[in-house]
Amino acid sequence: MATTRATLITGASAGIGAAFARHLAAEGYDVLLVARRTERLDELATRIHDEHGVRAEVVTADLTDPAAPAAIVARATDLGLPIDVLINNAGLSGGAKFSDTPWDSVAGELQLMVTAVTELIHRVAPGMKQRGWGRIINLSSLAALSPPGEGLLYTGIKAYVLNMSQSVDMELKPHGIHVTALCPGFTHSEFHDVMGTREAADRLPSFMWQQPEAVVREGWAAVTHGKPVCIPGTLNKVTAAAIRPVPQRIQYHLGRTLNPFK
Asked: Which residues are in the Ketoreductase domain (predicted)?
C-alpha cells in the first residue's frame, strides 16, 4: 500500500482514537490527529513518527465549534494530506437530564456527534470519489441498539450515526468507498473519567470490558471487508442479538427502569 494515503482521526488523544492512530500508522498510513489537547496529540504524533516512520500531523480543534470541520479539512489540504481514511471517533455523553442541561451544552453535544460527524464525511467524500477509494469509520455504540435512557440523548445520537453510516455506505460503495458504523460496548478509555461515571463503570465485571486495541482491530477489519456495521466482541454481539426481538414498548420501560439519574 502506498504511504501517500492519509487518515484523519478525531478524538485522537486517547482511547479508541489513539488506538486507531497507532494501528493505521503501523499499516503505513500518514495520520492527521485531531483533538482538544495539544500536548497529548504532540506526544502521540512524535511516538508514531519515531516508531513507524509515517507522517504524523496535529490539529488542535474543538468539534463542538461549528467552524471546526471546515477548518480541519482546510488544514489537511494545506498540509498536502488527501484524506482517504476518516475515523469519526470524538464523542461525549451528557451527565445530566436533558431539561436540566443548559442549551449550549446540548447544542455542543449535537454539534460534536451529529453535525460534525456528518459534515466531515460530506467534506472528504468528493476527494475519495475522485480517487476511487476511501474508508470511513463512524463511532456509534452498542447503545444505539439498546433501550433509550431517560433524559439522555446519547442512545438517539448513536442510533442516528448507525443509520446514517449505512445510508452513506449504500451511496458511496459503488465508488470504492466503504463506510462502517462501529458499535462497541464498554471499552477501557478515559470516557468515563471525563463524563464522571468512573465509579459506576468500575462496578461492572471485567468480562464486560474490551481494550481499545481489540475494538480497533475488529472495526478496521470490518471496514476493509465492506461491512456496514461492526459490533466488536462476542458478548456485545450476543447482547445486540438479544435486544433486537424485544418490543419497543418493553424497551421503553426498560430504559426507564435503568434510568442512570435515579
From this structure: 5-163
DSSP, res 143:
G
Q: State pLDDT tens for residues 115-148.
A: 999 999 999 999 999 999 999 999 999 999 988 8
253 vs 100, more confident:
100
Provide the pLDDT confidence category of residue 257 given band limits of 50, 70 and 90. Answer: low
CA dihedral 106, 107, 113, 119 (to 10 degrees): 170
Please report how many Cα atoms fall inside a 13 Å half-sphere around the Cα of residue 256, on the Cβ side: 5
Number of neighbours of residue 66 by Cβ within 10 angstroms: 13
Q: DSSP string covering 148-177, please?
A: PPTT-SHHHHHHHHHHHHHHHHHHHGGGTE
The mean-pLDDT minimum among 121-130, 158-167, 181-190, 200-209 falls in 200-209
Structural domains in the chain plus CATH codes:
6-257 (3.40.50.720)
Set of cell numbers at residue 63? 468539534
Which pTM value belongs to this model? 0.88
> Are the CB atoms for 17 and 35 separated by under 8 Å?
yes
Task: Count CA within 13 A, CB hemisphere, residue 82.
Answer: 15
Q: Show which residues are catalytic.
A: 154
Taking Cα atoms as reference points, which of 194, 198, 185 lies closest to residue 242? Answer: 185
- CA 208, CA 166: separation in Å to the nearest integer? 26
Q: Taking all residues of the chain, what is their mean pLDDT, rounded to a whole number? A: 89
From residue 116, alpha-carbon distances to 83, 88, 108, 113 in Å are: 16, 9, 10, 6
